[in-house]
Structures are given as structure tokens and as C-alpha cells.
Amino acid sequence: VTLVKTSSSKLISSFKPNTIRVVCDGTRLTLTVNGTQLIDKENGDLTDAGGVGLGAIAYDAMPVVLGYDDVKISAP
What we know:
Layout: E1 20-25, E2 28-33, E3 36-42
Antiparallel strand pairs: 1-2, 2-3
């Protein structure tokens, strides 16, 4: 399921660390990047519990490097 399209991702910096917050509450997903809400979406297609993933892709810059300094998973 594509949640962020290329034209929407200008909030994500390629040059400094980003703060990304994802809240899944029932069938509602909220994605905040650097303090700005990027997505607030209801999607009943995602019904399997327990799977979490975060990835990135770039069409014009290689390599794409992802690193996580702090990951917290908790109930909303």
C-alpha cells in the first residue's frame, strides 16, 4: 500500500536527520514527519496485526541509506 507519493515527501530531508512518527489506531494511520502531519488515512485493507515496516526509495540518488537512532513501539 503506497502511503506517501514522491510529490508529498518534500518534508523529508536528505541532508539532516528526520523525526518520523507513525500512529496506527484501529484502521486509521497517521504519519508525522519533522512535526508536520503528512498523512491521516483510514484504510480497512490493512487488517493483519503485528506487521510494521518503514522504507525509502530514491530514483535519482544512490545509495539510499536508512538508519534509526531510536525506535519506540507502544499502544496508542
